[in-house]
Amino acid sequence: MPNLVASFRRLPRDVQLFAWASFLIGISSFGIFAVLFNLYLQRLGMGPEAIGLLLGGGPFIWAIGSIPAAMIGARMGNRQAMNLGVLIQIIAFVLLLSAGFLPAALQVGWITTWWMVVWLANALNTVNSTPWIMAVAAPEERASAFTAQSVLLSLGGFVGSLVAGLLPGIIAKVTGMDSDSTTAYWITLWLGPIAFTGGYYLLRITKPSPPVKTPVATHQAAGIPYLTLIFVGILVFLQVSGESLVRPFYNLYLDSNIGMPLARIGVVFGIAQVLPVVLSLLAPSILTRWGATRAMIAISFANALCCLAMAFILAWLAASASYIVFMSIAPIAHVVRTVFSQESVDARWRTVVSTATNIGTALGQALFTVLGGFLIAGYGYRSLFLSGAMMALIAWIYLRIGKRQNAFDATLDSPTSVLEEDR
């Protein structure tokens, strides 16, 4: 652990600030909102189809906004565009939660409007943050930089999940309201924009830097690398599909089908955020030893096994363990995809490939979150988990074909790349 801390401290100051900002943002997005938001919507009277449409509509707006976000980043700089996105998200979260002051008949429409704005601003953040970190960090620091961000994001999710599981009960006890009341959930959700504000401050104090001019280094520098963009976009779409079927609805599943108390759901989600911290630390060595293709093949197969366990093992302990393992794999997959996609193109195309990655992620989340809501309503949760297993296996087949065709290796010219396949 001391070596890990020392390694983190050797990273550039701006990378460290970005990682700590991710911690605070993780408290909100991957902790408090991940545990409570759809439970809050359910208690407002929304069914799984409506919740699926709302949660899936956000990533769809994210996909639409990704190309304009890249254009804005190219004009005003990646750092400034990223900060603007976080600021807009804070404002949108505050306005979204202001629905609690409105008449019940207006709440769902108000929440839907501002939820879409949150995701539109998220495009500015996610599209521009990756190429900015690539410019700030030296080539040998990039895997560690994204690993640090993933670790602290997961830690933030752990803290936020515990808060989300415990605070509504405490609020209910102090105020005398029902522990399962909508108001207790609503009050707790207000910690989300507060945490985001802390993250925005850390990003604001990073140093502005001029665009980095990098000499042409690959055969793709002469034009837009369409084949790489298509390959990476499809890969991301397939890999996030299983996660998008499971993640938005699993707290509803534990609540309604397993009958798990909210405090225990918070603990499960917290463990599912903190265990990836340990596994994320393995990402750089996995990339070095296995290479991108082998790592992502293994990840896809493991995701399929987890979804099958969720479908057929109904005991609460097994259901919790399956979800924890499933979510522990996600950060490693994110680090592998991020570093690979950014290293696979010349520096001037990094914002473009970041856009393709975000579009693939957003479309996968949008389509399969909406599909998940209708699967639950029509066929139950088992169909949801079996669909997740099927998509993970399709991703596994796609990667196997890509490995045989050397689709990954063809994009990499540097023999010293951290992602180069073992020969």
CATH topology type: Growth Hormone, Chain: A
Number of helices: 15
Rg from alpha-carbon coordinates: 21 Å
Largest sheet: none
Helix amount: over 70%
* Architecture (CATH level 2) name: Up-down Bundle
- Dominant shape: globular
Strand content: under 5%
Low-confidence stretches: 212-221, 408-423
Q: How would you name the CATH homologous superfamily?
A: MFS general substrate transporter like domains
Termini separation (Å)? 32 Å
Level-1 CATH class name: Mainly Alpha
Overall number of structural domains: 1
Structural classification? mainly alpha
- The count of strands amounts to 0
Average pLDDT figure: 82
Helix/strand order = HHHHHHHHHHHHHHH
Describe the protein.
This protein is mostly helical. The chain has one domain (10-206, 224-411): MFS general substrate transporter like domains (Growth Hormone, Chain: A). Helices cover 79% and strands 0% of the residues. It is globular, with a radius of gyration of 21 Å.
Summary of the model, kept short:
The chain has 423 residues and is mainly α.
Question: What keywords describe this structure?
Answer:
single chain; 423 residues; mainly alpha; 79% helix; 0% strand; disordered C terminus
SSE blueprint:
Elements: H1 2-9, H2 13-43, H3 48-76, H4 78-97, H5 104-136, H6 142-175, H7 182-189, H8 191-204, H9 226-246, H10 250-256, H11 262-280, H12 283-312, H13 316-343, H14 350-379, H15 381-404
Helix pairs in contact: 2-6, 2-7, 2-8, 2-11, 3-4, 3-5, 3-14, 4-5, 4-8, 5-14, 6-7, 6-11, 6-13, 9-12, 9-13, 9-14, 9-15, 11-13, 12-13, 12-15, 13-14, 14-15
